[in-house]
Amino acid sequence: MTDSVKYFLPEERIPRTWYNIIADLPEPPAPVLNPGTKQPIGPEDLAAIFPMSLIAQEVSTEREIEIPDPVRDIYKLWRPSPLIRARRLEAALDTPAKIYFKYEGVSPAGSHKPNTAVAQAFYNKEAGITKLSTETGAGQWGSSLAFAGSLFGLEVKVYMVRVSFNQKPYRRALMETYGATCIPSPSEETECGRAILAEHPDSPGSLGIAISEAVEVAAQNADTNYSLGSVLNHVLLHQSVIGQEAMEQMEMAGDEPDVIIGCAGGGSNFAGLAFPYIGAKLRGGPAPKIVAVEPAACPTLSRGSYAYDFGDTAHLTPLMKMYTLGAGFIPPGFHAGGLRYHGMSPLVSQLMELGEIEARAVQQLGCFEAGIQFARSEGIVPAPESTHAVRVAIDEALAAKEAGEAKTILFNLSGHGHFDMQAYMDYFAGKLEDRDYDEAELKRSLAELPAAE
Amino acid sequence: MTDSVKYFLPEERIPRTWYNIIADLPEPPAPVLNPGTKQPIGPEDLAAIFPMSLIAQEVSTEREIEIPDPVRDIYKLWRPSPLIRARRLEAALDTPAKIYFKYEGVSPAGSHKPNTAVAQAFYNKEAGITKLSTETGAGQWGSSLAFAGSLFGLEVKVYMVRVSFNQKPYRRALMETYGATCIPSPSEETECGRAILAEHPDSPGSLGIAISEAVEVAAQNADTNYSLGSVLNHVLLHQSVIGQEAMEQMEMAGDEPDVIIGCAGGGSNFAGLAFPYIGAKLRGGPAPKIVAVEPAACPTLSRGSYAYDFGDTAHLTPLMKMYTLGAGFIPPGFHAGGLRYHGMSPLVSQLMELGEIEARAVQQLGCFEAGIQFARSEGIVPAPESTHAVRVAIDEALAAKEAGEAKTILFNLSGHGHFDMQAYMDYFAGKLEDRDYDEAELKRSLAELPAAE
């Protein structure tokens, strides 16, 4: 086992442009609609909460968008991230498959999220904004925006889903170390928070509610903008550095992936790795199988409708055409807060509809089992979200063994689990169980989808 | 700020040999003594708890000792570790000094400790051992040996200081994820644990007690050996990969350090960075200032005696000549469990006595302040132990600013603080205070040093 396991690129190979898959789509994305008029919204509708530069990126059809030098300089703190061949995992599985993973947990905040957090902070700072508001579930996104804010001197206010806020005090401590403020949501600070608390004083909160609070604060304060950690086109755009680097590193390794795997909550780490590959395919290149992995408890791509829906619970956002379980869908409890979102990025959804990707829903016990096997082979303890990708990578490697095929598997290890050890403790204590979504809840929630015009 | 910040070496530049400073010392280290006879011990005295290969390394006078391929292959999972120029911290301090740090937190367990854990697991496996016992304070070492054990299929049993065991459930979860067993110490499992509990049922434990328990288990079971995470010559030897890589990376950066800084508990991360530089100096090379940073609450080098002492509380270990506060010394509570040890590595102690290094004792509030400034500039949240090195690096940079000198500072960032966020929370909550050691306690403890023959 004396071969290379890590494929490092030098700093100067950090991509100079982000890759925009919209340029390669066979048809343009469905427009985002004003929920009142059901008409496409214009840039001015978003100007209250986003800087114009990000709004321009949201609708851009350019294939390559330049990464500003100050953003690229900050990327240097951890990028290019390593591509690693999981030789020890391969040996443990006794599989003929080669397993590679792109490791985004090397970022200061511990996940892929800073790739977009830094860009968003930069453009907001440039636009004269001094404060950013956002939501966070598991805490990966809140920590990342807090980190990015500290580098640009922006005040960051994070609305954290209350149940996570209580369960994960160290996530909050990390955000505070970066100088951000972290508030349990629903809070008394916003109208929508107060309205929810009036009706449900013990509300555990949800990502949808926290988004509503953060958007409200941004909409009502001229010095404050809103930042979102996934779903939107510009967020996925910024994550394209992952796949661009991976393509170059796979070339260094002399391999070409047959299967590409990412976990998908809002879709950003999945898209970050997969979109540059899908784009190459759409332009006539090789056609690997692309798998988005989601929790069986919140199976947006597998069981949702492809329809216009709100991004949040209080219906403050515009309508986006996407796979959705319904903005009011409440998944059962499970340990991957970053995968609890009711919707899916419109771009990922469109590619699903086009048949370019496939979805796989997996249960959490198998994910933790895979995560532990991975930790004991490769040393890295994956975030609960990332264990979903590990699970399917292992399943693919075992299928290759069964079939006697020498497949090449590439997955995105989106983050480490250092702030999620309670989930591992619960697993070891036998407190976790597999959870399916509730059929009746899904039916109820889908029935509330806004009517199409 | 478009220059490089990271200096990555390719995998093939992981050192092929460890550097043994004993070859360059002006006189041989003082012998280790049998506490009964006060005569130098022989290899056979250690054979009950260490494999012969490590005992041979402990007393070797060879300058270079080959790193076995299987160890080097595992090093590839995270080595070479990055050398990073802290340009953002420099800018925040507005200093003419250049600040570089070697970042050992990229290892799977999050610190420099796996550099020796992997080597120790390898040699024990090779010797037919199936179980390792060890102690851990803050948890960095226990996690690292658990990780190393998982790679070689060794059962690892970790005695964790009870107060840390209770304060840090996630450290324990990490060890269990790697497949190790973690037991609060003092425990009912050992004679010395039972003796202590009989007298002090509520004993919070100490590193010295935990060492006694782990050594007892290893001494009494033929299939079990003991592993130590610092202090001993072979441990410091394994850490020399840090400084060897750093020398090559500083050359890539075109710089030569004027000051080299590491925090020092048992001495291993400090020695890992500093010894290759000190060796070069002893062979006629440049002479940077070398600073070992220790907590004011446990100032072994600054206030201890250079004398023969036990390594543990129950006096199960041989006598080593070292700086010591006395094996019975109890420091006041402070948040850097890895720096609470009463002694100091005999090799570091000898170099202190020779005037090759200097010691600086610092208070914890200033350390957390430095750690937070570092996190907000460079993104990485340092372990409480590592903040001690950050504090002195910042102090040196500010002194350079005062003096108008363009100094080059290099420090070892031995680990991240992801499992130590309670310490940061306590700091933010104003619960921490500066703590000096107790003069009367030190006097009492030093009076109990074993008599020299």
TrEMBL record, chains A, B:
Function field: The beta subunit is responsible for the synthesis of L-tryptophan from indole and L-serine.
Gene name tied to this protein: trpB
Listed InterPro entries: Trp_synth_b-like, Trp_synth_b_CS, Trp_synth_beta, Trp_synth_beta/beta-like, TrpB-like_PALP, TrpB-like_PALP_sf
PTM annotation (N6-(pyridoxal phosphate)lysine): residues: K113
Domain Tryptophan synthase beta chain-like PALP: residue ranges: 77-415
Substrates-to-products reaction catalysed: (1S,2R)-1-C-(indol-3-yl)glycerol 3-phosphate + L-serine = D-glyceraldehyde 3-phosphate + L-tryptophan + H2O
Broad EC category: lyase
Keywords: Amino-acid biosynthesis, Aromatic amino acid biosynthesis, Lyase, Pyridoxal phosphate, Tryptophan biosynthesis
GO cellular component terms, A-Z: cytoplasm
Subunit structure and binding partners: Tetramer of two alpha and two beta chains.
Protein name in UniProt: Tryptophan synthase beta chain
Similarity field: Belongs to the TrpB family.
Pfam families listed in its UniProt record: PALP (PF00291)
Named cofactor requirement(s): pyridoxal 5'-phosphate
Domain of life of the source: Bacteria
SUPFAM superfamilies from the UniProt entry: Tryptophan synthase beta subunit-like PLP-dependent enzymes
HAMAP family per UniProt: Trp_synth_beta
Pathway given in the UniProt record: Amino-acid biosynthesis; L-tryptophan biosynthesis; L-tryptophan from chorismate: step 5/5
Keyword field contains Acetylation: no
EC identifiers of the protein: 4.2.1.20
